[in-house]
Specification:
Layout (H helix, E strand, L loop, with lengths): L12 H29 L6 H8 L5 H6 L1 H26 L10 H20 L12 H29 L1
């Protein structure tokens, strides 16, 4: 039997959807928890403001911050949709780029930096959020959070999923 007649293994789409869902929930939750922790460590007193800030990317600022738990829930939904988008992208690219299958630590740094750059230089400027002045310490902290909370779960859980598939 030649290799052209060998059976083709088709990935289980249900398994892929499950892996993406779990990874997005883990990454989104870690990222949100890190945002709350960072906010509180820097003197913040109302963590709900993080969700309102995210909601203000799509809603007028007054509506987002004045909408109570409804707009906070909307902001949280938007946050998880963004985390899911970054996870889907990673899982789509992972089997095609050999570098991503090497060191999860290195990949987490590269992907976290990529997510930070895309969020801050491309996506956030397309929203209603008015960026403040650049702060190197805040930018480095945000990038490090994305490396650990988005990059690392994606690198580890994609590796696990594709090793099984």
């Amino acid at each position: 039997m030649d290799s052209s007649s060998a059976p083709v293994t088709v990935p289980n789409p249900t398994g892929l959807v499950h892996a993406i869902t779990v990874t997005a929930l883990v990454a989104g939750t870690l990222d949100y928890a890190a945002a709350i922790t960072n906010y509180l460590l820097n003197g913040g007193r109302e963590p709900i403001r993080i969700a309102w800030y995210i909601a203000s990317s799509l809603l007028p600022r007054e509506t987002a911050y004045g909408g109570g738990y409804v707009t906070a829930a909307f902001g949280l939904l938007v946050h998880y949709l963004i985390a899911t988008g970054w996870t889907v992208l990673f899982f789509l690219v992972y089997p095609r780029v050999a570098l991503l299958r090497r060191s999860p630590a290195l990949v987490s740094v590269i992907y976290g930096a990529f997510v930070w750059a895309m969020m801050n230089q491309v996506l956030v400027p397309l929203t209603r959020i008015t960026p403040g002045p650049f702060n190197l310490t805040a930018a480095a902290t945000a990038a490090a959070i994305l490396m650990v909370c988005i990059g690392l779960p994606n690198a580890l859980l994609a590796r696990r999923h594709f090793a099984r598939a």
